[in-house]
Amino acid sequence: MQYNVTVIGSGPGGYVAAIRCAQLGFKTAIIEKYNTLGGTCLNVGCIPSKALLDSSEHFHNATQHFAEHGIDIAPPKVNLTQMIKRKGDVVKANVDGIAYLMKKNKIEVHTGVGSFVDKNTINVTAADGKVTTLTTEKVIIATGSKPTPLPFAPFDKKRIISSTEALELKEIPKHLIVIGGGVIGMELGSVYARIGSKVTVVEFLDSLIPTMDGTMGKELQKSTKKLGMDFYLGHKVTAVESKGKEVVVKAEPKNGGTALELKGDYCLVSIGRRPYTDGLGLEKVGITLDKGRIPVDDHLRTTVDTIYAIGDVVRGAMLAHKAEEEGVCVAEQIAGQKPHINYLLIPGVVYTWPEVASVGYTEEQLKEQGRVYKVGSFPYKALGRARASMDTDGLVKVLADKQTDEILGMHIIGARAADMIAAGVTAMEFRASAEDVARMSHAHPTYMEAVKEACLAATANRPIHM
Predict the structure, then answer these.
(1) Cα angle 219, 422, 308; round to 5
(2) Any catalytic annotation for residue 442?
(3) Contact 49, 187 (CB under 8 A)
(4) 388-413 pLDDT, tens per residue?
(5) What residue ranges in 219-312 does DSSP mark as E strands?
(6) Residue range 416-442, pLDDT digits in tens
(7) Catalytic one among 58, 65, 69, 444?
(8) What domains can you pick out in the chain, each with its CATH number?
(9) CA-to-CA distance for 158 and 234, rounded, in angstroms?
(10) What pairing do the DSSP bridges indicate for beta strands 307-309 and 266-269?
């Protein structure tokens, strides 16, 4: 079996790379370890977590907001079995869609573990032990990542769980302890807080979602506290012990102070993810990992000129859409084109409610660079659209160069922030100034008016509605 390009891994980076290669005329194969395509994102990550986030938000609105809207219903109950089933149906629809795209683009799918024999030969070992050998001119590694366990508390997948198990629980936790206040911890923590769990978050750093602008973490903490979530920031976890149906978590303030002991029935460890390169046989082609990741040059080429790597296994943020951009970029480079990715303008999103979305520099980064900047912000509570929908938590924050007025960063916490951030990406791709955006007409009443008002605030401190 001979191919122009073989992709190892069928997550967003892998399947998008394969489709673009096929579109460019290459005979393409894709290798996937599991029986379903789509990788972590479609099967146990982005898609199923968003399905549960939406379901739990519907329940929360039914119990907390319907009456104020004039909708009287009997007190609703959570049917967790149905909630999980619907999540599974959403996953299946997406996975089936990827299988269809493979057929449509004449991409040959091989199921099994792909391992290098040499730089142009790959063995695919199926679950039954059968080995298929592929010959290929180019290889794109897109094997993604796995949840990182605590070294002193490996996942038992029963009480000490990762995000994968958190998507398949058979009962609503009475007390869910979340270790890690990043994107995954906050998203899944909010799912269970909405449907009745007591949720406690322990985070080593001094802010939630610490990779984002500091204002976003503070605002998210204020908002999720309304769900009853508790937070211990600046705490280092020292022990996690499973005792039957109870989990005991011990932590201590990293700067000294009284130690903490928490008892719950489940502990979600969400301290990050690690690149997954197990079984690839990289040593056979002379590729050496750097801090667990595959080193690549500016063109995403590894130290072997016919092998590329993209997504979570290489440097940068572990984001599905970042992997997709890299997949397209590599395919087009193989075809002799000259694509480019501006990594600064790859947005980050937290799908809590309110959502959080950011692009560009954070205020902390600009301070560290010594850059002279100005800030414009506008609260959702001043928006007519937000008042109408009862989504008044949140704000838009715009950072602009003090001399040129060029937008350097946009950070949003609020309803539909995940969709709105595309406006910031577009503006920054075209090097727009805050005044450029402020002078554009924005439909009324919409959430996007907050972006216009924040840009007005950044331009000349002249927001209209505040």
Answers:
(1) 105
(2) no
(3) yes
(4) 999 999 999 999 999 999 999 999 99
(5) 230-233, 235-243, 246-253, 260-264, 266-269, 273-275, 307-309
(6) 999 999 999 999 999 999 999 999 999
(7) 444
(8) 2-146+274-343 (3.50.50.60), 160-271 (3.50.50.60), 354-460 (3.30.390.30)
(9) 27
(10) unpaired
